[in-house]
Design goal:
- This protein has about 725 residues and is of the alpha+beta class.
- The protein has 11 helices and 35 strands.
- Strands 5, 6, 7, 8, 10, 11, 13, 14, 18 and 19 form a 10-stranded antiparallel sheet that branches. Strands 4, 9, 12, 15, 16 and 17 form a 6-stranded antiparallel sheet that branches.
């Protein structure tokens, strides 16, 4: 292949940021800029790229997609063995194209080819102009005589330059999800990954913040925020090279996932979704939230149903009369929907605990002799909609399904069965299993057209990874692809049904799955003192409209505190309404009315994290409507040390119009309680953002919610 005659710049721009690629004189594609957009695109040609330094071996340091073998000495983005056994790659530029790809979107594709083999990689960059978000993924294809083995296939290969780099990543476990940890990158490589197969995010979350030149700050500084849209094993590698630049490689974890690619077939990686912010982590979050609402989450600009779940009230112990009474409780409380949780199915192996029945999706005749259809009608008669819990990817060894189809289960034939939470994973790489899982959900809707909600759980990881119908090295990849095939079919047939994504809490929260689900369950830990931290960390990447927050009896804090924390997202209930005290019920009924009024600002507004729960006596979050005519301020006492409310500093608001005037009213007050906040005073937006206000949080007022309204509205 001949060398490129002239240097080519390929700017991939949003309204405020740019990723600029260059084709050098040897035809290699490199990154020369990733950051703030230049006002004059012609000046990108003046940027220097690092090429041919130190006897030429570093020309791949800023490669846009680093190949393995040949002259590359760095961690590769792609590694393959050709049909003739050659383990090297060289990728040179062939052509590129940028075209409109929807309202406010452009798609740039760059075709690269190995000059010695009919092996191609297309780099894809979708730019969302108004949201300042990019999606990057790769498509690999070849026409060699036989199959090619892919050992690594990253979605993105980014490159940044700064004086220092501070990486914030998120890890945890069940009930302690998304704990942040910030570390300064030093020479070498930092790797974040998952090998769990399903529930892939249980221990390590597929998202990161990379702050340039200084530790991450909320409203200032340059930050790259990224998250992989993939519900399986992932890997992020951050390599600080000898020239003090950072390379970021993101994609499917190559662990146990060598993929055999036949001639003429495409291998398309999942997308890395990322944004570059010059306004700190807050700016990055707001960009990702707008992108998610506008382009990814179903009905992202719509409404959500409030619900009452039966788990806290009954767990597995319920029958039809008990459930019908709970429907009435839901109506009395004021929610939109009743959700029936685990335990409604299985006959030969009744689901009376978590040790049996999973996989047998027929109504348990002892508990529900009249079936799901009866419950749907009774809920409707009580004035609420009806939803149901399922876990269709899993099976208990004690089930009819396991007895009939042991070959559908992921397990090694010569190893002892290994279970996680008394269950195993069905092989969704198997088309027959895909058909079964689709049928479980489709059958529920076919028989019950008024079924209004699905909670989809996934509670086991993959042990003894082996497929009876699929090359085992493909299993981790094809499992997720099989899941997406099922969800694609369901969403095509049922495009508007609300669906909650759950996985033993927040072990499957990613934008690959959230293409299909309207909302997700962040954690089984519903203690509000913990949820403040958990919800704060999820808010870095995911919008409030998608974040399910339920009021439960996990802790003994007052109902007001529990409600205020849950209101910072998609609110629901999981408690026994008949056990509530009269003032608690009255408060909750009014809080739901307040919530209904304020949902537009919370769901669709801009989020400002004014004071984090880390290192402060008071945590404070603000949601501001798009028109800047309504805002909701949530403040919580975090420190156990006593301070009078007047001793705490004022909180400066953000995102308001400086020249508009606003009134401030406290809401979510317990019956008979008077607020110290004077709602008759009008403030300029400039005053509230420059001077601020004191919500009067104290050990007697541990949570305060203030409604900020444009005067005259």
């Amino acid at each position: 292949m001949t060398a490129v005659a002239a240097v080519i710049e390929i700017p991939i721009e949003t309204n405020r940021t740019a990723l600029v690629l260059r084709v050098d004189n040897d035809g290699h594609l490199v990154i020369i800029h990733h950051g703030k957009k230049l006002q004059q695109a012609s000046e990108y040609s003046r940027l220097r790229g690092i090429t041919h330094i130190n006897e030429g071996y570093s020309e791949f340091y800023n490669a846009a997609y680093t190949p393995a073998g040949s002259r590359n000495l760095l961690e590769p983005a792609i590694q393959a063995t050709h049909a003739d056994g050659n383990p090297s790659l060289d990728l040179v530029y062939v052509r590129h194209e940028t075209k409109p790809a929807g309202q406010g979107q452009t798609l740039t594709t760059v075709l690269l080819k190995d000059p010695q083999y009919p092996f191609e990689v297309t780099l894809n960059f979708r730019a969302y102009q108004n949201e300042d978000v990019l999606e990057s993924w790769s498509t690999i294809r070849h026409m060699e005589k036989k199959a090619v083995r892919l050992q690594k296939y990253a979605s993105a290969n980014l490159y940044l330059s700064a004086n220092q780099y501070y990486l914030t990543h998120y890890h945890g476990n069940w009930a302690s999800e998304v704990r942040p940890e910030e570390t300064q990158l030093t020479a070498g490589m930092k790797v974040l990954d998952s090998k769990l197969g399903t529930r892939a995010q249980m221990l390590q979350s597929p998202m990161f913040m990379l702050s340039l030149n200084q530790p991450a700050q909320e409203e200032q500084g340059e930050v790259l925020a990224g998250t992989l849209a993939w519900s399986g094993n992932f890997q992020f590698a951050f390599e600080l090279d000898p020239y003090h630049n950072v390379r970021v490689l993101a994609g499917i974890n190559p662990y146990a996932s060598e993929y055999t690619l036949e001639p003429g077939r495409d291998f398309t990686t999942p997308a890395l979704v990322y944004t570059f912010s010059t306004q700190g982590t807050g700016g990055a979050s707001r960009s990702l939230h707008r992108w998610a609402r506008n382009h990814r989450i179903p009905q992202g600009n719509g409404d959500r149903l409030t619900l009452l779940n039966n788990w806290e009230a009954t767990q597995f112990d319920f029958d039809e009369p008990k459930l019908v009474d709970l429907f009435k409780d839901g109506k009395k409380l004021g929610v939109d929907l009743f959700l029936l949780d685990d335990g409604w199915f299985g006959n030969n192996f009744p689901r009376n605990n978590d040790k049996a029945g999973l996989g047998d999706w027929q109504e348990n005749k002892a508990k529900l002799p009249h079936g799901i259809g009866y419950l749907v009608k009774e809920a409707e008669a009580a004035g609420v909609k009806f939803g149901i819990w399922i876990e269709p990817e899993m099976v208990n060894p004690k089930s009819d399904l396991y007895t009939k189809h042991p070959d559908w289960v992921i397990k090694l034939p010569n190893r002892e069965n290994a279970v996680f939470r008394n269950q195993q994973v069905l092989d969704l790489s198997n088309p027959a299993v895909q058909e079964f899982v689709y049928g479980v959900v489709d059958d529920l809707f076919t028989k019950n057209p008024k079924l209004a909600y699905i909670k989809w759980d996934c509670n086991a990881v993959i042990y003894n990874a082996y497929s009876s119908v699929n090359p085992t090295s493909h299993l981790y990849v094809d499992y997720v692809r099989g899941l997406y095939k099922v969800l694609d079919r369901l969403r095509t047939k049922y495009p508007t049904v609300p669906m909650m994504l759950c996985s033993g809490g927040g072990a499957r929260v990613d934008y690959g799955a959230l293409k299909y689900f309207t909302e997700f369950w962040p954690s089984d830990n519903t203690s509000p003192s913990e949820r403040i931290f958990i919800q704060y960390n999820y808010s870095m990447f995911f919008p409030a409209i998608a974040t399910c927050n339920h009021i439960t009896n996990w802790s003994n804090v007052p109902i007001k505190f529990r409600t205020d924390v849950a209101m910072m997202g998609k609110m629901g209930y999981d408690l026994v309404v008949s056990h509530m005290k009269p003032d608690e019920l009255t408060f909750s009924q009014q809080a739901l009315k307040n919530y209904d009024r304020l949902k537009p600002a919370i769901y669709h507004g801009d989020l400002y994290r004014l004071q984090p729960p880390y290192g402060n006596d008071v945590a404070s979050m603000l949601y501001v409507s798009e028109k800047q005519d309504k805002a909701v301020l949530f403040s919580y006492l975090i420190s156990n040390r006593f301070k009078a409310g007047s001793d705490l500093p004022t909180i400066r608001l953000r995102g308001l119009q400086p020249d508009k005037r606003y009134t401030v009213q406290e809401i979510n007050l317990m019956p008979g309680v008077k607020s110290p906040i004077d709602s008759t005073i009008s403030y300029s937006g400039d005053f509230l953002m420059t001077v601020g206000l004191n919500p009067a949080v104290s050990d007697r007022r541990t949570s305060v919610v203030l409604e900020v309204t444009e005067a005259g509205r």
